[in-house]
Every structure is written in structure tokens, then in C-alpha cells.
Amino acid sequence: INRGNRWTVKPGAFNLDVEINLKSFSDIKYLLNILNVKQIIVNNLAFNNCVESVIDVLYEIKQQYNIKLSYKFHDHLSICPSFFLLNKDCVNCECFERNTHCKDCLMNNQYKTIQRTDIDAWRRAWKKLFSCVEEFNFFSEYTYNKIRRVYPVVEKKHTIKEHVSLFSENYTKYTQPRVKGEINVAFVGSFYKEKGAHYFVELSKLCKSTNVKINFYIIGVDNKNIKHENVRYICGYSRDELGAILTKNNIHAVVYSSIGNETFSYLAQELMILKVPFVCFDNGAHAERVRKYK
Q1: CA 24 to CA 49: how far, in whole Å?
Q2: pLDDT by residue (tens digit) across 136-147?
Q3: Residues 6+ apart with CB under 8 A from 121
Q4: d(CA 220, CA 237)
Q5: Please, are residues 140 and 160 in contact by the beta-carbon 8 Å criterion?
Q6: Is the CB of residue 254 less than 8 Å from the CB of residue 188?
Q7: What are the backbone angles phi and psi of residue 39, rounded to the nearest 5°?
Q8: How far apart are CA 199 and CA 211, in angstroms?
Q9: 0.70 exceeded by the pTM?
Q10: Is 73 left (phi over 0), alpha (psi -120 to 50) or beta?
Q11: In this predicted model, what pLDDT tens digit does every residue of 21-70 receive, in sequence order?
Q12: Does residue 58 contact residue 133 with C-beta atoms inside 8 Å?
């Protein structure tokens, strides 16, 4: 676990309340000398401020201990520090392979999670890591097809398997209300620009200006930095209560306006399980799920 510049190891198989503090990530080698570690799974390096150093240590560990190394693609961080592949204008990047505009974009990109501007050095570091990874795990074909265009090494040793649902057995069901004149649509999740909040607001304004009778709501995390006069915030939600909240507020459909290149979408999965009608843009793993929606 990385907390800023501090690393801790939690031996989950024994006691989750125990934490072993490390002075640096490289200190993990001391544990490898006394433990019979057979595999290291790199689950996520996003929001880490020393990614290249972590990669160097993992590479050294692989060379020294010959431990199986696996990597899970929860984001597109290896392609770009803007891990949703959004450019400086918060638009889906279509030229990430060519590197033609990367320097200027990264200098002014507020959507990156780490302050890096040299895309070539960035990708050299990841290429070094991937050269010693034995298994790459993807959660959508969409992500796999993006990554392999930059790192062909993933093609011969990858798996694609969707996450299982996080609903408990007690999750609440959804009942679609009858249409009686006006329609109620909701944005579900965090109301941020990366999630397409501005498009949801734009849609509400368009409906108002054309006298289309649709009411717009937010269920999740509100954002006061985005003006939404025609959109009303209802409440937050817990995963298992989503069906009940949508039913209680007479929501007819959900607009999933995320513009990020999602590697998987629990929300899309949950809406499908609940049989909630929803629409989304044709990019990201959530769009892939919609194409499978029956």
C-alpha cells in the first residue's frame, strides 16, 4: 500500500490489522528473503508519485528472485499519465500512438495523475516493466485493444475477464415507473467533467430550450463547481440501495455520460443487472457492455 511517500505491507492472509512499515518500496526485498513469495500482482500504480522507481525495483526483484509477475489493467496509466486518455481539453485522445501532440498536451493537462511531460521516457519505463511480466489481466476487450497498440508484448500472454458483480445477495431491485407525461432521467455517480457531467448539463439545457418534458437528476456525488441550474441533486447512494433509490425517485432511465476510456464499469454492470434503461457514448468498456446488453 502506498500512502504518499510511505509504503506499508499488510499480510492479509494472516491479519489485516497488522501493518509492516517500509522506509522505501525497495525494502520489500527484505521480506522476499524470508518469505516464500511465488507471485507478485501489480494491481494499481495510479496516484503513485514515484512510478519509475517502483518499476525499477520490480524489475530488479524479477531478475533476482524469478518470482512470477502479473499486471492488472485497471487504467491506461502505462500509455499516458492522463490515465483515462483524456487530452488537455478533456476530449478522448485519438492520437496516443503517434506521440505527435503529447508534450504540449501533458504540459497543460489537468487530468493526469502524475506530473510527467516526457511521454517517451514514460513509456520506456513501462516497457521495461512489461518485459518481465508473465501475465497481463484485462477486464475488457476495449482496454486490451488500446494497450496492445502501444505495447504489443501483451498479445501473447494476456487474459480478458470481466469483474464479478459487487452486489450483495440483498441488493434492492428496480421497478421502472410508468410514463405519465414527463420523463425522469438520472446521472448516477460522481458529477465530474471526466464523467461527462458537462454533457449531462448541456442535454438538460437543450431539452429546456426545445420544450422537451424531461426532468434531470443527480444520484451520487454532487459537484458545486459545475453549474447545473436545470439539474437537481437527489442524494448519494450505496451500491445495494441503488435499485430502491431509482425506483423511489421514479427514474425512467440513466444517462451514463462518461467520456473517459473506462477499463471496466461496475455501474454499467449494475444497471444491466437491475434492468435499468441507460445510454452512453460509444467509447470505453461501458460502451462494450452496452453492446452486450440484452
Answers
A1: 13
A2: 999 999 999 999
A3: none
A4: 6
A5: yes
A6: yes
A7: -150, 140
A8: 18
A9: yes
A10: beta
A11: 888 888 888 888 888 888 999 998 988 888 999 999 999 999 999 899 99
A12: no
Query: How many CA atoms does the CB half-sphere of 274 hold within 13 Å?
Result: 32
Residue 180: phi and psi, rounded to 5, are -125, 70
First to last CA, the chain: 39
What distance in Å separates the CA atoms of residue 47 and residue 64, rounded to the nearest whole number?
27
Distance, CA of 245 to CA of 255 (rounded, Å): 16
Question: Which of 183, 187, 195, 185 has the alpha carbon at shortest distance from 262?
Answer: 195
Nearest Cα residue to 246 out of 273, 223, 280, 219 = 219
Neighbouring residues of 75: CB distance < 8 A, sequence distance ≥ 6: 44, 46, 83, 84, 263
Phi and psi at 42, nearest 5°, equal -85, 105
Contact 69, 40 (CB under 8 A): yes
Please state the separation of Cα 245 from the chain's center in Å.
24
Residue 201's pLDDT band, with cuts at 50, 70 and 90, is very high
Distance separating alpha carbons of residues 253 and 276, to the nearest angstrom: 6
Helix, coil or strand: residue 190: strand
DSSP 167: -
Q: Please indicate whether residue 33 or residue 99 has the higher confidence score (pLDDT).
A: 33
**For residue 253, what is the DSSP state?**
E
Residue 69 backbone dihedrals phi, psi, to 5 degrees = -120, 125
| SS3 of 15-80 | CCCCCEEECCHHHHHHHHHHCCCCEEEECCCCCCCCHHHHHHHHHHHHHHHCCEEEEECCCCCCCC
Task: Give the model confidence (pLDDT) of 67-92 as tens digits.
Answer: 999 999 999 999 999 999 999 999 99
